[in-house]
């Protein structure tokens, strides 16, 4: 009785692609069967035995079929011989009288004819070969349609693979290519990440926690007439925790959470991207209230109409248009909240960024020293670390590190400790991990000549001397001439984390960066290519001072930086005359700091030489070595002393 209530449509059998494969196999078997039958039966032999039968006078008739096959008919007397009794003809369609006793294939027809005629003449036989041309219409027909059947079968197989269908009807699975690829997280999916696992990011967490709170207790906001933001865009540098924050929302919200990447909408077929957007929002609305998270939204959210030279990607723009309509258009369901993440917000379309679509832009910045300490505490939990490990020290040793970088430091430290056979990860392992990540792998066996090693020592000693003598230069941590990565030596500093930077601070940093080349000039009266990275750094700083921050007296209080435009523009926002002025000003700033570095090193040449000799002897020196040679820093401040500790 229960079956009577079922929808009749559900009883309709689905078309299976295996039917196509069965048809192909059947056609092949039929072709093989009929091909064998039309060629007739008969025992196989070879030309050598055949010519022996001819000499013995056992052959009554020979038929040459299609210039490649010989059918041999024996005389009645020969058929009674013991040697031929096993050659009785059998067939599914012809009588025994019509069937040959033997059949074989030969090579070149002319050679076969000459040999046969030679034997007939020698033995004076009355035997004349008969030439026949046979046509197999059924086989020709099957051969003709077989490629088309194979093509259809292969096409169905490819479409099923592309649509991801493992079973069911092929007709329905083909159209699954337009279905959304979003991964659904709901009450049946265990997501272990919570806000407790997201260290730092207090402002960003507060914003997204409000979204989660609205989904749990909507009446708290709606009773006052408020509306929750329809979308939240997480913006920030790579590795700062944007995707981790979205995972925490999925773990905390307890509502259906659809997660996918912006590239999941992109497909080679026209209209697929827009179709997937429609299907995604349809699923989300059916399960509302729900959250959609699109990671790396810049894959489809680029500003439209800006690829004039190469031609715009219509498919990507159609996908973006559909996304804009679904987020805020006619019939928009306000119970679907869209979250997205990108590190390239400057290239996104303005229509996507407006209020009503992404009402909130949550900036996820690099963590400060306090937040880095919290992040270290999260990633140190699974590690077997030594007792009393100072997380304050670790956080101060990693300025500019993102959350992903800190996770990498902890993992590298554990690997280094395991490589050295330690039972716990200690402070030195973390310092080595920081060196490994910043500078690269240590190469102690790199071949370097004594003169090159001396040049590297004076170069690094020049950096250390200048940074020690200048007020606003970053305090030194250590100097090494052990090759790491692509560098032959390195000086490690601990820069202050400033919110604003003044011109004198930038000039001191540029002077310290040029200290290596200045030391080579002062000691050897020669310069080398070893200052490439230093020159690159100071050139960028000088250009930023002049063209971005307006810190040049000659150019004035102007900036040629436009935050709304891509940094890869093809036109300059200034004239050629101004470009010449900018180039001259950049050159003057760098040259002034270079001469300043030379002057400082010439005044402290003996101390520079002493420091380089210590570096050549020990290969690695620290702040204590500089204090023995130079004494206390002349501009030491209270907060700097705290930071150095």
UniProtKB/TrEMBL annotation:
Primary place of residence? membrane
Q: Does the keyword Iron apply?
A: no
**Domain annotation AAA+ ATPase: ranges:** 228-368
Q: Which UniProt keywords apply?
A: ATP-binding, Cell cycle, Cell division, Cell membrane, Coiled coil, Hydrolase, Membrane, Metal-binding, Metalloprotease, Nucleotide-binding, Protease, Transmembrane, Transmembrane helix, Zinc
User: What is the E.C. number?
Assistant: 3.4.24.-
Report the cofactors.
Answer: Zn(2+)
Keyword Cell division assigned: yes
Q: How the protein sits in the membrane? A: Multi-pass membrane protein
EC class of this enzyme?
A: hydrolase
By sequence similarity, the record places it as follows: Belongs to the AAA ATPase family. In the N-terminal section; belongs to the AAA ATPase family.
HAMAP family in the record:
FtsH
Q: What function does the entry list?
A: Acts as a processive, ATP-dependent zinc metallopeptidase for both cytoplasmic and membrane proteins. Plays a role in the quality control of integral membrane proteins.
Share what the entry says about its subunit structure, partners included.
Homohexamer.
What is the name listed in the Swiss-Prot or TrEMBL entry for this protein?
A: ATP-dependent zinc metalloprotease FtsH
């Amino acid at each position: 009785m229960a079956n009577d209530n079922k929808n009749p449509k559900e009883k309709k059998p689905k078309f299976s692609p295996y039917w196509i494969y069965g048809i192909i196999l059947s056609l092949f078997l039929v072709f093989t069967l009929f091909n064998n039958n039309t060629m007739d039966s008969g025992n196989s032999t070879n030309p050598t035995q055949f010519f022996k039968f001819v000499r013995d006078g056992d052959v009554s008739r020979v038929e040459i079929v299609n210039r490649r096959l010989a059918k041999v008919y024996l005389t009645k007397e020969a058929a009674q011989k013991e040697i031929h009794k096993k050659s009785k003809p059998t067939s599914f369609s012809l009588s025994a009288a019509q069937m040959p006793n033997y059949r074989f294939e030969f090579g070149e027809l002319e050679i076969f004819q000459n040999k046969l005629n030679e034997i007939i003449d020698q033995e004076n036989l009355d035997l004349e070969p008969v030439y026949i041309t046979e046509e197999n219409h059924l086989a020709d027909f099957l051969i003709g349609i077989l490629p088309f059947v194979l093509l259809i079968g292969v096409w169905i197989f490819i479409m099923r693979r592309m649509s991801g269908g493992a079973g069911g009807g092929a007709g329905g699975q083909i159209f699954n290519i337009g279905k959304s690829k979003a991964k659904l997280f709901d009450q049946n999916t265990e997501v272990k990440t919570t806000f407790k696992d997201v260290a730092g990011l207090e402002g960003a967490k507060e914003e997204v926690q409000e979204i989660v709170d609205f989904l749990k207790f909507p009446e708290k906001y709606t009773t006052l007439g408020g509306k929750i933001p329809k979308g939240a865009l997480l913006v920030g540098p790579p590795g700062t925790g944007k995707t981790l924050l979205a995972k925490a929302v999925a773990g905390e919200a307890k509502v259906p959470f659809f997660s996918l990447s912006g590239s999941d909408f992109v497909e080679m077929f026209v209209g697929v991207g827009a179709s997937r957007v429609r299907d995604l929002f349809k699923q989300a609305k059916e399960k509302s209230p729900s959250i959609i998270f699109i990671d790396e939204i810049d894959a489809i959210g680029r500003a439209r109409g800006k690829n004039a030279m190469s031609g715009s990607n219509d498919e990507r723009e159609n996908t973006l248009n559909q996304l804009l309509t679904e987020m805020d258009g006619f019939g928009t369901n306000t119970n679907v909240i869209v979250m997205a993440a990108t590190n390239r917000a400057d290239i996104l379309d303005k229509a996507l960024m407006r209020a009503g679509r992404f009402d909130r832009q949550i900036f996820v910045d690099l963590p400060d020293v306090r937040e880095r300490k919290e992040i270290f505490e999260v990633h140190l939990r699974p590690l077997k670390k030594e007792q009393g490990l100072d997380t304050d020290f670790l956080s101060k040793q990693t300025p500019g590190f993102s959350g992903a970088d800190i996770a990498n430091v902890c993992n590298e430290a554990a690997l280094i400790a395991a490589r050295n056979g330690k039972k716990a990860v200690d402070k030195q392992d973390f310092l080595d991990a920081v060196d490994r990540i910043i500078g690269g792998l240590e190469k102690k066996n790199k071949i370097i000549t004594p003169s090159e090693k001396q040049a590297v020592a004076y170069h690094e000693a020049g950096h250390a001397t200048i940074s020690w003598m200048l007020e606003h230069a970053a305090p030194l941590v250590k100097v090494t001439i052990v090759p790491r990565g692509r560098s032959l030596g390195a000086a490690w500093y601990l820069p202050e984390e400033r919110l604003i930077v003044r011109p004198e601070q930038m000039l001191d940093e540029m002077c310290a960066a040029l200290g290596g080349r200045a030391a080579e000039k002062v000691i050897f009266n020669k310069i080398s290519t070893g200052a490439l990275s230093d020159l690159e750094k100071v050139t960028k700083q000088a250009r930023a001072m002049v063209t971005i921050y307006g810190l040049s007296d000659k150019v004035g209080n102007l900036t040629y930086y436009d935050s709304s435009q891509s940094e890869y523009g093809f036109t300059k926002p200034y004239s050629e005359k101004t470009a010449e002025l900018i180039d001259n000003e950049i050159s003057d700033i760098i040259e002034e700091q270079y001469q300043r570095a030379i002057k400082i090193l010439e005044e402290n040449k003996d101390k520079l030489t002493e420091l380089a000799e210590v570096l050549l002897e020990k290969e690695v020196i620290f702040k204590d070595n500089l204090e023995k040679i130079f004494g206390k820093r002349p501009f030491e401040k209270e907060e700097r002393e705290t930071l150095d500790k």
